[in-house]
């Protein structure tokens, strides 16, 4: 009955089940059940062997009558909204072979009564809130084959006592998120475990600093993750040679492992190799396509690798993800990319010393989704062949690329990060069709001309619902974005960033009013250009704007009063322009009281500047601001009004008095002298 929505029946379903004394198996997973009666007057289905209540949003706790089902061999309560400590009563289900309690809210330690389950083959306590210890009596589960303890906050120590009798154990998965007191493996250096593991996943617990002997004797491993377990030094090459023929998945990331990558051993079945954030050095094996022909994921991020990128990488047919970010690799990009690599989704070779051009053969990578080549020494133009790819994120920042910006960019692109290059020319009008664009960074180039007046077509900066960010398994995209006056690295939150940075170019003309319709834009930087005209009056419509930098331009006129409506604004820079009048106040602008925000605008007045506006000398009270440019405009008109009065008085006075002084007959007529 799995998947049948019987939530409206409440307890009636259980009364019906209780009338089936010969029932052996009951499967009610994903039935939207919410209620389990706490008691039954008579339990009539005690012959039950299999009970599956997983994936139900129960609002009641595990009832006591369940522990009277002593014939149960399989109990699945995964993702059933259970919580509290795991009851000692589970120890009464002595016939259990399979116990699944993952995806709930259990906390505390594993009860010692679990040791009574001598027939147990599989135990899953993953994705709970377990914050206690693993008892020594755990070692009595001699028939245990699979043990899953992922994503909890385990603490304490694991010694030989918890492991010494697990002779049949094949799959051991334990990860902890307890950063203050992580779980520690404390076994004798020469201890040889009684089991032969096929799957081993240990994460964020301590098994180092040396690569332990008890792991070196595990010769049947096919799947290994030893992530953030504080292993230092080198890994014996003998261990690699023992497991190489069977291994399909190897993850040794986030340790401090040293030494060279194996250059002779063949790993014919490895599909995923993650060695990021270690201290591996030396070159990447030149014949890597022969050593690992089945490779799909290769992540060597943040190591000390040097030398050239092997040409043979372009021969690995089933490669999905290639990440070589933050190493010391040099030479040119590998050539001979071909159509046989249609599975390649990500190429990230950023933060190396790669020189030369972006090769046109990369255009054969039709499925290429993310291309990150930033912070190298690449030169030349972006090849037009890349329009044959499916690129949705392009990061070429921090190179020496030149030529015009590519007008062929497709409308599905999410990020266009081309800052700090030598691009020239104008911003292509065709880019107004980039409806999914959320990050446009063209800062620090040699661009000229005006800002296109069609940026309002960037729909993803107007309505977040128009954009669906695609995540890629085993890859987290990273990018540096300058916002709030500083450079920040975004990774998992990159999908939520919206920004336009055109700073440090030679753009001219005014700020298009259409840009103010981007009410979901988080950062706008147009500084260090040659923009003129006034700040758009309705800039206050950009309610999500956190950073606004218009400094070092030639903007003039008053600061619009609507700027006080920017309630999310935390960084503002309007310095070194020709702005005039009273600085608006109210709302978020009250907190932005740094005088350097308005520096270099000698005709601005009002708080936070020491320069007072006309009329402020007679009143110490707060001024009432209008909307748009009314406030600044009123001050500007008031200056002209008083100036006109003064000028009129001077002209009138000297017109009469000067004439009288010069005309003697007039003077006699009026004053008799």
Automatic annotation (TrEMBL):
Where is the protein situated, by its record's location annotation? Cell membrane
Record key words, sorted: Cell membrane, Glycoprotein, Leucine-rich repeat, Membrane, Receptor, Repeat, Signal, Transmembrane, Transmembrane helix
Instruction: Give the principal location in a single coarse category.
Output: membrane
PROSITE patterns annotated for this entry?
LRR
Annotated membrane topology:
Single-pass type I membrane protein
Which residue ranges does the record assign to the Disease resistance R13L4/SHOC-2-like LRR domain? 79-180
Q: Where are the transmembrane segments?
A: 639-662
Question: So which residues are the signal peptide here?
Answer: none
User: Matching InterPro entries, A to Z?
Assistant: Leu-rich_rpt, Leu-rich_rpt_typical-subtyp, LRR_dom_sf, LRR_R13L4/SHOC2-like, RLP23-like
- The source's domain of life comes to Eukaryota
Query: Which Gene Ontology CC terms are recorded?
Result: plasma membrane
The entry sums up its family as follows:
Belongs to the RLP family.
Q: What is this protein called?
A: Disease resistance R13L4/SHOC-2-like LRR domain-containing protein
Per the UniProt record, the source organism is: Quercus lobata
Q: Which gene encodes it?
A: LOC115990221
């Amino acid at each position: 009955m799995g998947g049948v929505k019987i939530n409206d029946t409440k307890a009636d379903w259980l009364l019906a089940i209780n009338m089936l004394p010969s029932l052996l198996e009951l499967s009610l997973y994903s039935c939207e059940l919410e209620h389990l009666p706490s008691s039954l007057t008579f339990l009539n289905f005690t012959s039950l062997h299999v009970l599956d209540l997983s994936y139900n949003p129960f609002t009641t706790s595990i009832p006591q009558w369940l522990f009277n089902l002593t014939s149960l061999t399989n109990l699945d309560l995964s993702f059933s909204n259970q919580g509290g400590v795991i009851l000692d009563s589970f120890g009464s289900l002595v016939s259990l072979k399979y116990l699944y309690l993952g995806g709930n809210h259990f906390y505390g330690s594993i009860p010692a009564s679990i040791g009574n389950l001598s027939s147990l083959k599989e135990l899953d306590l993953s994705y709970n809130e377990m914050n206690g210890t693993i008892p020594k009596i755990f070692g009595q589960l001699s028939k245990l084959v699979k043990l899953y303890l992922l994503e909890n906050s385990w603490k304490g120590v694991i010694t030989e006592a918890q492991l010494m009798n697990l002779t049949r154990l094949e799959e051991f998965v334990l990860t902890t998120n307890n950063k203050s007191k992580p779980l520690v493996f404390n076994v004798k250096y020469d201890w040889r475990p009684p089991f032969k593991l096929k799957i081993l996943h240990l994460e964020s617990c301590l098994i180092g600093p040396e690569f332990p002997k008890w792991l070196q004797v595990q010769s049947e491993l096919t799947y290994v993750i030893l992530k953030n377990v504080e292993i230092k030094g080198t890994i014996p090459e003998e261990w690699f040679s023992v497991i190489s023929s069977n291994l399909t998945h190897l993850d040794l990331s986030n340790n401090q492992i040293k030494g060279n990558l194996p250059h002779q051993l063949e790993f014919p079945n490895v599909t995923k190799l993650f060695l990021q954030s270690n201290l591996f050095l030396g070159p990447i094996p030149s014949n890597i396509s022969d050593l690992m022909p089945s490779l799909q994921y290769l992540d060597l991020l943040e190591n000390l690798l040097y030398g050239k990128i092997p040409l043979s990488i372009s021969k690995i047919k089933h490669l999905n993800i290639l990440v070589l970010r933050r190493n010391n690799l040099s030479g040119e990009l590998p050539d001979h990319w071909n159509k046989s690599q249609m599975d390649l989704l990500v190429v990230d070779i950023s933060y190396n010393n790669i020189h030369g051009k972006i090769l046109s053969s990369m255009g054969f990578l039709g499925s290429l989704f993310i291309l990150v080549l930033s912070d190298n020494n690449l030169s030349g133009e972006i090849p037009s062949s890349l329009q044959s790819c499916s690129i949705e994120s392009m990061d070429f920042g921090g190179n020496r690329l030149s030529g015009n910006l590519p007008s062929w960019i497709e409308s599905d692109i999410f990020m266009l990060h081309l800052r700090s290059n030598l691009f020239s020319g104008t911003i292509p009008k065709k880019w107004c069709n980039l409806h999914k664009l959320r990050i446009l960074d063209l800062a620090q180039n040699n661009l000229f001309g005006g800002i296109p007046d069609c940026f309002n077509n960037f729909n993803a900066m107007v309505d977040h619902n128009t954009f669906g960010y695609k995540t890629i398994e085993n890859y987290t995209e990273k990018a540096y974005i300058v916002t709030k006056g500083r450079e920040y690295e975004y990774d998992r939150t990159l999908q939520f960033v919206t920004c336009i940075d055109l700073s440090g170019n030679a753009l001219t003309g005014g700020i298009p009013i259409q840009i103010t319709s981007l009410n979901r834009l988080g950062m706008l930087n147009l500084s260090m250009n040659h923009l003129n005209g006034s700040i758009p009056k309705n800039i206050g419509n950009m309610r999500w704007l956190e950073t606004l930098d218009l400094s070092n331009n030639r903007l003039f006129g008053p600061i619009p009063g609507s700027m006080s409506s920017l309630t999310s604004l935390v960084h503002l820079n309007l310095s070194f322009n020709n702005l005039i009048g009273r600085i608006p106040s109210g709302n978020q602008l009250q907190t932005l009281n740094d005088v350097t925000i308005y520096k270099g605008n000698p005709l601005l007045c009002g708080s936070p500047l020491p320069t007072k506006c006309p009329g402020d000398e007679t009143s110490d009270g707060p001024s009432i601001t209008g909307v748009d440019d009314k406030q600044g405009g009123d001050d500007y008109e008031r200056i002209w009004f008083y100036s006109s009065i003064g000028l009129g008085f001077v002209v009138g006075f000297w017109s009469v008095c000067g004439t009288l002084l010069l005309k003697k007959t007039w003077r006699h007529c009026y004053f008799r002298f």
